[in-house]
């Protein structure tokens, strides 16, 4: 009786109190966590907000190599400021240098052959042919004398017709040998035929062009800076194989950072509100107090799909954006290439009409 009268009611009251406490505690609104950094605020009454990413003034140049090969030497490191034409890295050039020596030798052979043809005839080549002409003349004179002798016989019975024809043919043959010897001497004295000289000269030019091609390939094996700028990223090391062509990760990322560019993505729904003459400011993420005025550079005339994401949970990734480029001096903000910033553009009186 005691349990029913006292213990059970006490337990019921205690359970009810626990249930009421649990319900009240769960219905309380959670305390919002303080933001890591205060969000950036627009200084303009009618702003257009955009997300910007910092680039070099030359844009970010992805440097590669036209000739694939093993990297022999890297001349720079990330963060180095270099002048236009300064070497960045070099591909192994041993096979190219060997090929150049082969082509240089071929050029020397072609040049010597052309020189030899131009120097013809040699003085020592003429006397043997002159002697050959004299011999042919003597043989012709002898044949002429023999034929005249046989032809002068008046008694036709003393000379056979066959013998007379034989002497005539011998004279014709001697005359032909003399003419051939004289023609050969004239050809020798005339020197090399002009078309042969032209062919030899063309061979020299061909060999010279091949040598220049090899020297150009040798020069291309050393990749140089296209302009004054800074090495922003270095992804190549000595001993690694450097492929040619466009790479997902460039061998070297390079650009001029004296003036920085802010590539600002403006939602296509706000694109019509952007004015080229409108003022603009950029704020660093993580510290909105660090901000600077921007100078308008240009508007990219083609609206592109959005690629640069801010990480906001409400951000749309299926939208298209108008890219507006602004610039600022490097010392105006403690910013780095590739860093994201918040950009506000003064839309002025560009508001929707009723």
Notable characteristics:
354 residues; alpha+beta; Elongation Factor Tu (Ef-tu), domain 3; OB fold (Dihydrolipoamide Acetyltransferase, E2P); 3 domains; eight-stranded antiparallel β-sheet; 16 strands
Account of the protein in words:
With 354 residues, this protein is an alpha+beta fold. The protein has 3 domains: 101 residues, Beta Barrel (Elongation Factor Tu (Ef-tu), domain 3), CATH 2.40.30; 52 residues, OB fold (Dihydrolipoamide Acetyltransferase, E2P), CATH 2.40.50; 107 residues. The chain is 38% helix and 24% strand. The chain contains 5 helices and 16 strands. Strands 1, 10, 11, 12, 13, 14, 15 and 16 form an 8-stranded antiparallel beta sheet that branches. A hairpin with a 2-residue loop joins strand 11 and strand 12. Helix 2 packs antiparallel against helix 5 and helix 3 runs antiparallel to helix 4. It is rod-shaped, with a radius of gyration of 48 Å.
